[in-house]
Structures are given as C-alpha cells and as structure tokens.
Design goal:
about 90 residues, mainly alpha, 2 helices
Length: about 90
C-alpha cells in the first residue's frame, strides 16, 4: 500500500518543509553541445508573445469597427463635396 503522506511535514508543524541552506534546482535549458540559452531568450519569447497578442487584438478591433469606419469615411467625403454648395448659399 502506498503512503500518501510520505515526505510531508507532520500536522501542526510550523517549521518550513525544506532546509533554507539547501539550494533548490532551477530550470536551465541547454542548447546543443551543453551551452546554456542566452539570458535574453525568455525576454524575446515574451516580447514575441505580447506582439502577437497586440496584433490580434488590434486586428479584431478593426474588423469589428470596419462598418463604422466606412460610414465615417463616406461622411467625410460627402462633407467635402457639399462644402462649396453650402458656402455659395451662405
């Protein structure tokens, strides 16, 4: 039978589970020939992800506003076309 409580501190214990002097292993990815990834790698991944998200957000906003922007453009054109007649009548 498997003991599911193995490795857990006793109930009611206020001491930390791990010794503070023991170093916790960190995730280090290596490229070929044992070289570690450059320090800027994760920042570049985040920058690319944020750029893609911003592009998708902007594109979806423009798609949703496409009809409205078309009406604004047509209205602007018509206002320039009618302006000489309005000036003549004024």
């Amino acid at each position: 039978m498997t003991d599911l409580t193995a490795g857990r501190p006793p109930e009611g214990s206020t001491e930390p589970a791990a010794d503070p002097d023991v170093e916790v292993p960190q995730l280090v990815l290596h490229m070929g020939q044992g070289r570690a990834l450059p320090r800027w790698f994760w920042r570049a991944i985040v920058a690319v992800a944020v750029s893609v998200a911003a592009y998708q957000f902007g594109r979806s906003i423009l798609i949703q506003l496409q009809g409205f922007l078309l009406i604004v453009a047509i209205s602007l054109f018509l206002s320039f076309a009618v302006e000489p007649a309005v000036d003549f009548l004024a």
